[in-house]
Amino acid sequence: MGGQKRGLNALTPAINPRPRPSDNSMKRFDTVAARTDEGMTTAIEHPGLEVGAALSVQADASRGDPVYNEFYAKGGWKYSFWREYWWHRRHIVRRFRLRTGMRVLEVACGNGFHTNLLRRMGFASIGVDRSVAGIAWARSHFPRSRYHRGDLFGELPVERETCDVVYARGCSHYHYDLLTDQALGTTRHLLQYLRPGGLFIMIIVTNLSGSKEPDRIWHNTLDDYRRHFSSFGSQSSVSWVDGMAVCGLWKAV
Question: What is the value of pTM for the model shown?
């Protein structure tokens, strides 16, 4: 670990990386594999849903709440701290030229791992999720980070136009039809919390196939994401990294 810590941002203290989940711990998930640009595979999992179970064409909170509460109560997603640290440093911090000290609001934060990661990287981060269990777990395991329970379409726990960055990673509203009122309304609502010139970052798994099966998450293309973000009339960026669409939308000044 001593060698890994050299060269890290001085605001980032040492931490023990979490172990990767075993194959057995993942067997209850309906897994959709996505091809990465390195020829490997990554995956998005729907906890507690049987393979072949019908998914709503768009995110259905009333159905998802009990599933995710149970999942998050058991610890939720498992990540390697150092892998996520270096990935975010390269593909988020450097790509979007973020500066330490920026105020970052993470929505759909789940168990709060990435909110805590961003804090450890030197950002003033706040995490929000609608899951009672997810927020309880986050507060218990990451007590130095700030978490609030809230709905994406409700009033979020910060004043409007006060955030430098709004961050959404794996938010289900962006897994399906990107031109629905739900998807467009989500982006429009979140932009209200950015200061003029602030940045909305959205990351979501896709294999770029354009597959829109009714019983699976949709694999939107980069053009699908470009159409979504260009509809807001300000500068945007859409790219594909390690099997994920990495999108940025700057709020007009």
Answer: 0.78
